[in-house]
Amino acid sequence: LRARQADAPTGPGRTADGHAVPLLANVGSAADAKLAVALGAEGVGLFRTEFLFLDRKSAPTVAEQTAQYAEIFRVMGDRPVTVRTLDAGSDKPLPFLNLPEEENPALGVRGLRLSSVDEGTLLDQLTAIETAAKETGTPVKVMAPMVATVEETAYFAARAADAGIETRGIMIEIPAAALRSEHLGAEVDFFSIGTNDLSQYLFGADRMSSSLAALHNPWQPALAAAIAMVVDGASKHGVKVGVCGESASNPEFACVLVGLGVETLSMAPRSIAGVRAQLAEVTLEQCRAAAAAALSARTAEDALAAARKALGRNK
Ligand code: PEP
Ligand code: MG
């Protein structure tokens, strides 16, 4: 393994037979973006904007936000950046939003749902994102977190279009959105599957609970089934599908994602090298065989073993 890592290819992500899989970074700060560039990220697939504002007691102004976004866009230069609008609430409370206490914040007013009680925060953010994109010339896309319905998808796409943002998408992290991806796909250009929350809601298992780790195992066949459903729904409208949850950073599962038809993978910058090296060793056909094997497995353990075999890793 050591020898393989030393020989790890650099440059863009691709399989041994040349199928391109852009490897993108998840970032929350300019420091993360610098690390992403240093480690060869081809862009940012998830810019977690709430991380910039976790400590603020008062709402950031449009000018303050513009400056912060522009700083990160400049680091990325002409590499594409997907900005996620605020995913506040639940595990990421923002003090300045003054939200009411909730019994079950993971199931509460969080992500895009905040705009139903405070639309101004979303509109200001979209304005700041578009201003910073124009200022820097970086190709910027926006996406909304925690979307469940067609109405929410259409609402977000319309507000982003009003702000002048051309490429608009949503995260798929609620099972209802996965089930109805064909209908949601009619409203947007891309989907980014957030497997951390998708697993949480699919299995009814708190993502913060270490005792439930077995249910968050990416090899749980139900997760692959949900992803396959999203890819299928997206294909009806030519909607691009990426994955930006932790599962994309598991090198073998990344191959399964590619085999399922996922086009881009976004992960912590330090995970990119391992995924790049693994992809370079397998063909697209092997990835497809691994995906089929994982989908038809009965258990997570069987899915991992079957995928490994298809990837030629059972020696
Ligand atoms: C996810 O839910 O998978 C995701 C990428 O978003 P976050 O971890 O920020 O909720
Ligand atoms: Mg999430």
TrEMBL record:
<keyword id="KW-0670">Pyruvate</keyword>
<keyword id="KW-0762">Sugar transport</keyword>
<dbReference type="GO" id="GO:0016301">
    <property type="term" value="F:kinase activity"/>
</dbReference>
<feature type="binding site">
    <location>
        <position position="48"/>
    </location>
    <ligand>
        <name>phosphoenolpyruvate</name>
    </ligand>
</feature>
<keyword id="KW-0460">Magnesium</keyword>
<dbReference type="GO" id="GO:0009401">
    <property type="term" value="P:phosphoenolpyruvate-dependent sugar phosphotransferase system"/>
</dbReference>
<dbReference type="GO" id="GO:0005737">
    <property type="term" value="C:cytoplasm"/>
</dbReference>
<feature type="active site" description="Proton donor">
    <location>
        <position position="244"/>
    </location>
</feature>
<comment type="similarity">
    <text>Belongs to the PEP-utilizing enzyme family.</text>
</comment>
<feature type="binding site">
    <location>
        <position position="84"/>
    </location>
    <ligand>
        <name>phosphoenolpyruvate</name>
    </ligand>
</feature>
<protein>
    <recommendedName>
        <fullName>Phosphoenolpyruvate-protein phosphotransferase</fullName>
        <ecNumber>2.7.3.9</ecNumber>
    </recommendedName>
</protein>
<feature type="binding site">
    <location>
        <position position="207"/>
    </location>
    <ligand>
        <name>phosphoenolpyruvate</name>
    </ligand>
</feature>
<keyword id="KW-0479">Metal-binding</keyword>
<keyword id="KW-0963">Cytoplasm</keyword>
<feature type="binding site">
    <location>
        <position position="173"/>
    </location>
    <ligand>
        <name>Mg(2+)</name>
    </ligand>
</feature>
<dbReference type="GO" id="GO:0046872">
    <property type="term" value="F:metal ion binding"/>
</dbReference>
<keyword id="KW-0813">Transport</keyword>
<keyword id="KW-0418">Kinase</keyword>
<feature type="binding site">
    <location>
        <position position="197"/>
    </location>
    <ligand>
        <name>Mg(2+)</name>
    </ligand>
</feature>
<keyword id="KW-0598">Phosphotransferase system</keyword>
<dbReference type="GO" id="GO:0008965">
    <property type="term" value="F:phosphoenolpyruvate-protein phosphotransferase activity"/>
</dbReference>
<feature type="domain" description="PEP-utilising enzyme C-terminal">
    <location>
        <begin position="3"/>
        <end position="282"/>
    </location>
</feature>
<keyword id="KW-0808">Transferase</keyword>
<comment type="function">
    <text>General (non sugar-specific) component of the phosphoenolpyruvate-dependent sugar phosphotransferase system (sugar PTS). This major carbohydrate active-transport system catalyzes the phosphorylation of incoming sugar substrates concomitantly with their translocation across the cell membrane. Enzyme I transfers the phosphoryl group from phosphoenolpyruvate (PEP) to the phosphoryl carrier protein (HPr).</text>
</comment>
<feature type="binding site">
    <location>
        <begin position="196"/>
        <end position="197"/>
    </location>
    <ligand>
        <name>phosphoenolpyruvate</name>
    </ligand>
</feature>
